[in-house]
Amino acid sequence: MIIKEREKPFKLLAHEAAIRRVPKNHPKYPEIEKEYFRLHYGYLGEKAMDYFSSFLPHENYKILHGLRIPDTKGRYFQMDSLLITPTHCLILDSKYIKGKLEFDEDTGILIRHHEDSHQRVGDPLAQLARHKIQLSGLIDKLKLPSISIETQVVISHKSATLFKKSPTLLNKIVFHTNLPTRIQAIDHTQKTTRFSAKETNKLVKVLLNRHKDDSTFNLMVYYGLTPSDFIKGVICIKCSHAPMKKYYKKWTCVSCGHTELDPVSRTIKDYPLIGLGNTITNKQFREFVCIPSISIASKFLFTLNLPQKGTNKGRIYYLE
After folding, report:
1. Which of 114, 144, 151, 307 is least enclosed by beta carbons within 10 angstroms?
2. Domain of life of the organism in this record (predicted)?
3. What b/e sequence results for 272-307 when a residue is b if at least 16 CB atoms lie within 10 Å of its CB, and e otherwise?
4. How far apart are CA 188 and CA 103, in angstroms?
5. How far is the C-alpha of 270 from the C-alpha of 16, rounded, in Å?
């Protein structure tokens, strides 16, 4: 059964907001866009992997997606998916990369050959080897029985091909369409029960308690931006023009004419995502949403039903 569902990473949400809010002619935009696509395609690959793993008989597995935990030395590591059974654990690492892929078995490095170029795109085999050691160390520290930890690199792009492949390598790598078959094949090699139901539940509980997402990431600080670098106002979802203008009960884009009844709730979500803070005042709200009136801003903040503290000019609102 799925114990922890996959959620869109905060870092990806932050970069999605930055793509909306940072002008395309800003010197930092290309760097932000490059990282956005890396995160976006990584998430697509994980979701594609999830689809094929959904064909497994889930009652046999405890499945945790997107688990980010500290090892015994406090170093955080992230597993795209972790499957826990009474006989073994399985760590899955998704790679959403197209082109001809070459794995160097000695170094674990992945090389992508595309058109007339080639580039190093990570070391998933070496990374999984590290994750295996880190997870094993955590299990030992919990005084749980020693258990086999298997790993698989999952190629999740339909246009990817492998070359210079060996039988040893093919046991470590699988295309996402063949994932259910590969997992069942691994199951057949693991016959000895290591964890009781109580021990399995103990491990799952500890992992969930120690999981910490990446919401401490601050995009503005990371890229050295300032509040003035961001586009303010309600952004039109049709043509990306900003700011939209409020006329009576509707917001209207002065560029394409698109109208919307309640774009403020989606607009204010960008505020913490781009790193401006998890709290906001009436003044900050007016500046960000481009509303000149204090009273109108107060009405919007009231309808958003945000937790608040203080009174009058000292009132602050907490953004979730």
Report:
1. 307
2. Bacteria
3. bbbbbeebbbbebbbbbbebeeeeebeebbeebebe
4. 26
5. 9
Mean pLDDT along residues 48-73: 91
188: tokens are: 């057949």
> Given this model, what pLDDT does residue 88 score?
97
pLDDT band at 201 (very low <50, low <70, confident <90, very high): very high
Under DSSP, the state recorded for 72 is T
C-alpha distances out from residue 157 to 12, 54, 93, 126, 188, Å = 19, 17, 13, 21, 27
How far is Cα 317 from Cα 281, in angstroms, rounded to an integer? 6
Peptide bond into 243 cis (omega under 30): yes
Q: Which residues contact 144 (CB under 8 A, 6 or more apart)?
A: 195, 199, 202, 203
Q: What share of the chain is helix, strand, coil (3-state, %, to 5)?
A: 40, 20, 40
Q: How far apart, in Å, are the Cα atoms of 250 and each of 236, 246, 258, 301?
A: 13, 6, 10, 17
Mean pLDDT of 103-124: 82
231-318: what fold?
Arc Repressor Mutant, subunit A (1.10.10)
pTM above 0.90, yes or no: yes
Spacing of C-alpha 286 from chain mean position: 31
Domains of the chain: which residue ranges? Answer: 2-210, 231-318
What digits encode the pLDDT tens for the residues 83-99? 999 999 999 999 999 88
Tell me which DSSP letter residue 216 carries. Answer: T
pLDDT at residue 59, as a whole number: 78
Q: Report DSSP letters for 228-266, one per residue.
A: GGSPPSPPPTTT--S--EEETTEEE-TTT--EES--HHH
Helical spans, DSSP H, in the chain: 10-21, 29-53, 124-141, 167-170, 179-189, 197-210, 219-222, 264-273, 282-289, 294-303
